[in-house]
Amino acid sequence: MITFSVNGREQRFEGDPDMPLLWYLRDIQGLTGTKFGCGEALCGACTVHADGAPIRSCQTTLGDLAGMAVTTIEGLSPDGMHPVQVAWRELNVAQCGYCQAGQIMSAAALLKDTPHPTDEDIDSAMGGNICRCATYPRIRAAIKKAAGAVQRKTAGTAPVKAGSATK
Ligand code: FES
Ligand code: FES
């Protein structure tokens, strides 16, 4: 049996350990926000987090995930108010939208580890996420906007009470 978690919920899987995580998320868990693009770790559409790091779920097997915490676009924030999601909406980043969950997950992982990303940092972190609609300029602008929000949030504001609307 493989145990891991998805969006904070414990999973106990007794099937084929070689099943790709993407299959498990979409077909078994019904978490269809994560998309299938290439199936070969080349496009980034299937990006989710494992213990906070971005991974390609099409090429990550359930056997690779024992004991790990997976987060999908559905679990990135409880209310869609992660700074990256807010910036994405404010700048109307998405066109067809197909790549965007993967873009957002990669961007969120970037800002967690690098709150002040340079253009080079953004290029390095986002280079594996392909957008056939070429929304790249808006993606870059939204990452910078979200980085500003993260910085303001951590710049000495009063402690936020648990359950507060600003959490
Ligand atoms: S579907 Fe996984 S990287 Fe393209
Ligand atoms: S918004 Fe269409 S593929 Fe990126």
Automatic annotation (TrEMBL):
Q: InterPro entries in the record, alphabetically?
A: 2Fe-2S-bd, 2Fe-2S-bd_dom_sf, 2Fe-2S_ferredoxin-like_sf, 2Fe-2S_ferredoxin-type, 2Fe2S_fd_BS, Beta-grasp_dom_sf, Diverse_Oxidoreductases
Q: One Pfam match, by short name? A: Fer2_2
Q: SUPFAM superfamilies from the entry?
A: 2Fe-2S ferredoxin-like, CO dehydrogenase ISP C-domain like
The UniProt record lists the EC number as 1.3.99.16
> Which keywords label this protein?
2Fe-2S, Iron, Iron-sulfur, Metal-binding, Oxidoreductase
**Is Iron-sulfur one of the keywords UniProt gives this record?**
yes
The domain of life is: Bacteria
**Recorded coiled-coil stretches:** none
* Residue ranges occupied by any 2Fe-2S ferredoxin-type domain in the UniProt entry: 1-76
MF GO annotations: 2 iron, 2 sulfur cluster binding; isoquinoline 1-oxidoreductase activity; metal ion binding
PANTHER family xref list: BLR6218 PROTEIN (PTHR44379:SF2), OXIDOREDUCTASE WITH IRON-SULFUR SUBUNIT (PTHR44379)
What is this protein identified as? Isoquinoline 1-oxidoreductase alpha subunit
Question: Which species does the entry assign this protein to?
Answer: Nitrospirillum iridis
